[in-house]
Amino acid sequence: MTGEVAVLGAGMHPWGKWGRSFVEYGTAAARAALTDAGIDWQQVRSVVGADTMRCGYPGYVAGATFAQALGWQGARVTSVYAACASGAQAINTARSQILAGMADVVLVVGADAAPKGFFAPAGGERPDDPDWLRFRVLGATNPAYFGLYARRRMALYGDTPEDFALVKVKNAAAGALNPNARYRKAVSAEDVAASAVVADPLRLLDICATSDGAAALVLTSMDFARRHGAGDPVRIRAVSTVTPTYPKAVLDLPDIATDSAAAVDPLPRPFRASIALAAYEEAGIGPEDLSLAEVYDLSTALELEWYEDIGLCGAGEGAKLVREGATALGGRIPVNVSGGLASFGEAVPAQAIAQVCELTWQLRGTAGRRQVPGARTGITANQGLFGHGSAVVAVR
Amino acid sequence: MVAGWFTQDSGEEDFRLLGTRCTACSAVFFPREDSFCRNPACTGGELAEVPLSKRGRVWSYTDGRYRPPAPYVCDPDAQWEPYTLVAVELEAERMVVLGQGVPGVRVSDLAVGMEVEVVPGVLNEDGDTVWTTWHWRPLGVAS
């Protein structure tokens, strides 16, 4: 396929609370990805950094920051910010450059050193910023939105807190097998039920933590991969970075209200579903072709919603899937075999890149004890602030 | 803080959220949009202030069991009292508006589909000033 790029290298810095600079994490991940690819840093012709907004000036220009740390060598540089979707947009930027013939070898890096507790908006008095306003006027944290979605599922579909806990149990079991995960311990449904309520009905163990961490990829043209001796590399076949269609009828971070549908009827398909659909259309595949998926389990309940939005089941059937074990390792369509954000925590600019690292290892068949046998096709899905989101399809 | 988001100096009966309505396509915006109509099919009209429905139905709800970070204003020395957050569907405007529940309303008092109404409330106060906000109150509950 002409629209494909090769994933020659994938690397991470283990996630956790390490107390060091995001530059150090990102550089470690980049070096790991370069080693994995068998590529010398000096061969890289473009660097794309996913921005780390909490880390001030160097974080805003992440591409140059990583290029400097690795040693200036004249490569083209780009920095990308899209909140939780930063990594996916960085991958898309790298892919676009390769397909446009601007660079043969591109390094994509995202890293974060996240504070403990709730994410908060930038400081100062900024009433013109919707993200600032939701905290000031409503005290609406990210988990508050996850709580609203979870409660809505309970009312519409009869999901229970016990269903949500099953997602954590499943992801923790997978994360226990992943040396890069922050949490590597099995969790029981009783553990989830015993943890404190954060935003009703969600408990501490239903919500992903914040973490330090980093992930990096070396992407190349298919021609370069062949010349490099990689005849059958993992390939990225599609990246969707779609926006919603007006009126967006589902309340989303950081909005205080939805668009009004008084003037225009909303599409029957919710926005989150359009993210995966765009990727499927571009890749020429459907959910039935998937071997595995990595989705943003910012909360356990949200993972169930993703099952529906990436087409693994119909609306309202997500809980059934997790109850049946279909999405567990060894199930019909394993989801978040990396352990997901439940096991990694959020390192915002790195996590969408980390999802593609996991797909890469799975499609190569090198994922060790968490390997999905014979994996050939995978999708990632994520969502950033203001409702935009991204999905990546990788194949082997 | 949020000038023009709700009626000022009105009693509880007359208290309303204020949005804007595009005079060309009749799209409604809350918080108010005063610059450009965001309907992509609309070439744009004047945006006129419009009061939103006083009553709506609960789309979903949750609460905050832990103190939110700044810029939320609260007394760090006082014990944290969880508040509820209620997302309310307004039928006429066909939109969902988030707000805090009136003080004292707990998640156990709420249900999806329940009818609620908007009433004035206190966001925070210091020695000189009381900052007003809007709260959602289940019908039949006194504040």
TrEMBL record, chain A:
GO terms for molecular function: acyltransferase activity, transferring groups other than amino-acyl groups. Residues 271-392 form the Thiolase C-terminal domain. CDD domains: SCP-x_thiolase (cd00829). It holds the Pfam family Thiolase_N. Residues 5-111 form the Thiolase N-terminal domain. It comes from the Bacteria. This is Lipid-transfer protein. It comes from Streptomyces lunaelactis.
Automatic annotation (TrEMBL), chain B:
Residues 49-119 form the ChsH2 C-terminal OB-fold domain. Residues 12-46 form the ChsH2 rubredoxin-like zinc ribbon domain. InterPro entries: ChsH2_C, ChsH2_Znr, NA-bd_OB-fold, Thioester_dehydratase-like. This is Benzoylsuccinyl-CoA thiolase. It comes from Streptomyces lunaelactis.
